[in-house]
Amino acid sequence: MTARGIVIRESIIGQILPSELDTYVVKKYPYKMDGVVPVEILVLEVGETELSSVLFVFMELLIEGYYAHFVEAEKDKLYVVFPHNVCVVLRNDEITAERCRAIGRTYNIPVVQMSFEELFEEDHPHASV
């Protein structure tokens, strides 16, 4: 089983991904956050045995105002990684999603950017088409 991760390069301290994480990157692409701010998206695929280590590394890398997310679809889990914090959203569970949004608000992340329930199916649920 693998988890698919979405990380904004600009959310990483110094915008440099540690070399030990490069092996998990399967795709990179430009994106306009909120339809305006240009960023680079890193897509990672992480095996089940490495997932906890990768989540821990990202907890230490992220800057305030951002989060990364990893979907473990087979287990119906979404891991939301904030600076120094990871929370889990269970598929179809509004309570776990709201708990993660409450944590996100403490990092000044707008609620509109925390559509965690939709991240099981779509990487950018509110992207401009």
Please tally the β strands and state the result: 6
Describe the sheet with the most strands: 6 strands, antiparallel
- Estimated radius of gyration: 13 Å
Residues in helix, %? 10-25%
Q: Into which percentage range does the β-strand content fall? A: 25-35%
User: N-to-C SSE series?
Assistant: EHEEHEEEH
Low-confidence blocks of residues: none
How many structural domains are formed by the residues? 1
Rounded to the nearest angstrom, the distance between the terminal CA atoms is 31 Å
Can you give the mean pLDDT? 90
Q: Indicate the overall shape.
A: globular
Structure annotation, total helices: 3
Q: Which structural class do you get from the secondary structure elements?
A: alpha+beta
Provide the descriptors you would attach to this structure in a database record.
single chain, 129 residues, alpha+beta, six-stranded antiparallel sheet, 3 helices, 34% strand, globular
In short:
The chain is of the alpha+beta class and 129 residues long.
Task: Describe the model.
The protein is of the alpha+beta class and 129 residues long. The protein has one domain (2-120). It has three helices and six strands; from the N terminus they run βαββαβββα. The protein has helices at residues 19-22, 51-61, 94-106; strands at 2-8, 25-33, 37-47, 68-72, 77-82, 85-90. Strands 2-3-1-4-5-6 form a six-stranded antiparallel beta sheet, with helices on both faces. A hairpin with a 2-residue loop joins strand 5 and strand 6. It is globular and about 35 Å long. The model has no long low-confidence stretch (mean pLDDT 90).
